[in-house]
Structures are given as structure tokens and as C-alpha cells.
Amino acid sequence: MKTELELIVRPTEIDVNGHVNNAKYLEYLEWGREEWYEASNLHYDVLKDLGVQTVTVNINISYRHECVQGDRLTVTTEPKTVGRSSFVLEQRIYNEAAVLCAEALVTSVAMDPQTRKSRPVPDELRRLFEAGL
After folding, report:
1. Fewer CB within a 10 Å sphere, N or C end of the chain?
2. So where does this one cross the membrane (predicted)?
């Protein structure tokens, strides 16, 4: 399942160069992932009931086009790959002219909240990746 989150660049997200600070893109991506979890009905309490938390362990991001104050952006999030205990979401940020501004592969690990160790990706989450295969 692919989700889209729309947002507007705020003045507090701009750096001294007059464009969105690089760290803010990571925040936009996080909001996009939260939207994906919510749309998948896997919000925090559901994952908790499944005995799992997800933790981001790697973000590989490429910045393609600057964004400035007032830009209307769309963050897309979709499943890419799933392993035993980890999974990768592919995310992109587009401006309102459909120009690709950033793209990222985000790796997360399923973690047991008690032991703080990795555990197998629960079936409810795994299905979201296998549906597109």
C-alpha cells in the first residue's frame, strides 16, 4: 500500500540558505511513515498488542531539489522489501510541480519491547510487503 501525506513548508523549517534545512526532510519522512502505519491500521497500540515496536536503523536519503517556504509538498511512502526482522520503506518528497525533491530508503527493525532485541516481523506487517509481490 502506498500513502501520500501533504504538507506546507513553514518558516521555522528554513535555514540560513533560504531553503528547507536538510534535517527537516528526515522529519517529513517520519511524518510520512507515521501516515503509512496509520493507514495500514498498525498504529503504536496495535503494534504494542502484537508485542513489537519498530525502530529506524538506517536512512539513505538523496536530496534532489531544494524546497522553500510555502512550498506544498507530498511525501509518498510504500513498502519496498521485508526480511526476517527488518523491512525497508521507499519514500519520496515531491513539490506541487511534481518535481522530485528527495528520495529515501528507510530500514526499520522489529524489536521486542521487553528484551529490546530484534524479533521476526509480525505477519500483520509482513503482509503489507507481500501483497505487492
Report:
1. C
2. none
pLDDT digits (tens, 9 = 90+) for 71-117: 999 999 999 999 999 999 999 999 999 999 999 999 999 999 999 99
Alpha-carbon span 38 to 89, nearest angstrom:
14
Where exactly are the structural domains of the chain?
A: 3-130
- pTM here? 0.94
Fold classified for 3-130: Thiol Ester Dehydrase; Chain A (3.10.129)
- 112 is an active site residue: no
pLDDT range class, residue 64, cuts 50, 70, 90: very high
> Cα–Cα distance between 64 and 67 in angstroms, integer?
10
